[in-house]
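[#protein-structures] MJ: dropping Cytochrome c-type biogenesis protein here for a structure pass
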Amino acid sequence: MRKTPHPNPLPASGARGRIAFVARALAHWIAILFVAVTIFLPSAAFAVQPDEVMRDPAKESRARALSRELRCMVCQNQSIDDSEAPLARDLRLLVRERIAAGDNDKQVLDYLVTRYGEFVLLKPPVEGQTLILWLLTPAVLIGGGLGLWLYNRRRWASRPEDVTALTPEETARLEKLMADIPDSQAKT
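AK: finished. structure tokens for Cytochrome c-type biogenesis protein:
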């Protein structure tokens, strides 16, 4: 009679079969990891187009640094340096124009804040209106941690103390009850 292969994917025996199985499994995991990494990493083509780049490398690095501090109005939580939106391109060109005109970094940021409001800044300054935003996050984290600590403290406090050993009377009663159980039930 001819044997049919077992549906189990593991090799039946032998080091060679186990090595092949491990190699196939490893190859699958590497492929999955590769796909996951390529999905979540930014693409190699940056949003800054070649025609936007300034000729002076020092000015270009300033423009890139400023672009990373400015929010894309279309993409919301993405900097204009990373965004491919047409408005982000216009803002990158505006930053480069202001730098080419001789403005320092603060003047460029002030110019954009005047035109678009503080929302254009990815990291708004700590001042009266934004102070609550800066303080609310740590307050919520501290409050949540304190609440969790109190919950666990009460939970552990309500647990019974160490379990005490059986008294001699309880031990004798347990042995009597165990003796009454037939052997067929005692083994299960």
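MJ: nice. The mean pLDDT is 80.
AK: one more thing. Residues 128-157 form one domain.
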